[in-house]
Specification:
about 375 residues; Aspartate Aminotransferase, domain 1; 15 strands; about 15% strand; alpha/beta; Aspartate Aminotransferase, domain 2
Length: about 375
């Protein structure tokens, strides 16, 4: 139904069945024109380009994202090229002269997990990871962990990247200690699974970006910062000098808005692409609710075809899912070993079916450029 939005990517790969959109989503055609517009604006404004970006394009992006997440404070969104910048900036806002205790899960994406694994080698860092499985008891176990000690940072995904399992973020955020930063990684849910941040917008940080279901390509990530936040990250850049600064004596001043978490020069063409894509969705009436319903329909059809195929590995017995009505936009199958999973991914690729895996977990992603014929053909190539 919506293949026309991705005509250029589809025509460039006519024989390919792309089911890895949770990782590298096709870009909407409008993003190409947006990319060119960035070049044209750079030529037009030259030295005044930054003023145009920060006075026109950034507010456009903030407004569109705030509408998706139902945020009351669009100006509390700040941008960076990747989420790792925000991860380390958040970590650098903590007092490293004291012991630091971080609560998270065993299913966080590498931009966070690798960094805290490295920091946990330092004596002042303690990291506790709550297993997501069995998921039936996850929320209770995470709440117990939050209650069990004093934490300096809580970090958790809305949709877990290695399973598609979706947690009740509002429930956990409301239970979290008020004085502790509570950070939501929304990269695998933004523009895929609805999340209303309004009830918790005064107490949570939220980080996501355009590479996956926002479909604008890499390079435009964002962080929502609660309005009362007054942090002084050690990892800081010149963009933080652009806002009104609060300083004491000879201290380095920081903005009182989201730009206390700002970095430095970035390629804003990614923001142009994101804006164009989100505006296109609005024009098409493609709300998250509608997109999610279409993807759920495709996932249901995929599982029905899998049932018919009777594959030895890709079957419902190996499917990781709790509630398919409240699940990410990819289905994950836990296979016997990493080697078996990697081998199957390679074989499918030779047959023109692109998926991906994480360890022993095989992932199939679904997007608006899939229809019933694509799904049937994909199962035939497994």
């Amino acid at each position: 139904m919506y293949k026309h939005l991705y005509k250029r990517f589809i025509e460039a790969n006519p024989a390919l069945l792309h089911f890895a959109c949770h990782s590298h989503h096709y870009w909407a055609d409008v993003s190409r024109e947006a990319q060119l517009q960035y070049w044209d604006d750079s030529a037009k404004h030259v030295d005044d380009k930054w003023n145009h970006i920060f006075s026109v394009k950034v507010p456009q992006a903030q407004k569109l994202i705030a509408e998706v997440l139902n945020l009351s404070h669009p100006h509390q969104l700040v941008f960076a090229p990747n989420t790792h910048e925000f991860v380390f900036r958040l970590l650098s806002s903590l007092d490293w002269n004291q012991n630091i205790r971080i609560l998270t899960t065993d299913s966080e994406f590498y931009s966070f997990d690798r960094q805290i694994n490295r920091l946990s080698e330092l004596p002042q860092f303690e990291v506790v990871k709550v297993p997501t499985l069995p998921f039936e008891t996850f929320h209770e176990r995470f709440e117990q962990a939050m209650d069990s000690a004093d934490w300096n940072l809580v970090f958790i995904s809305h949709v877990f990247f290695n399973s598609g399992l979706t947690c009740d973020i509002e429930r956990l955020a409301k239970r979290a200690p008020a004085e502790c930063p509570f950070v939501i990684d929304g990269y695998h849910s933004f523009m895929a699974v609805s999340l209303n941040l309004k009830p918790i917008e005064d107490r949570v940080f939220y980080v996501a970006g355009s590479y996956k279901y926002a479909q604008g390509g890499e390079g435009c990530c964002f962080l929502y910062v609660p309005p009362a936040t007054r942090h002084r990250p050690m990892y800081t850049g010149w963009f933080a000098e652009l806002s009104k600064l609060s300083a004491i004596g000879n201290e380095v001043g920081y903005p009182t808005d989201a730009y206390q978490y700002a970095g430095s020069t970035m390629d804003f063409s990614a923001m142009y692409r994101l804006i164009a894509t989100l505006e296109k969705f609005k024009d098409q009436g493609l709300t998250i609710t509608k997109i999610h319903a279409l993807v759920q329909q495709n996932q249901k059809h995929f599982l029905e075809e899998i049932d018919k195929a009777g594959h030895a590995l890709v079957n419902r017995q190996n499917l990781i899912a709790a509630d398919l009505n409240n699940h990410g936009h990819f289905l994950t199958f836990n296979l016997p070993s990493t080697e078996a999973t990697t081998e199957l991914v390679k074989k499918m690729k030779t047959r023109g079916l692109v998926t991906d895996s994480r360890g022993s977990r095989l992932r199939f992603g679904f997007g608006l450029y899939h229809d019933a014929d694509d799904i049937k053909a994909a199962v035939a190539r497994i």
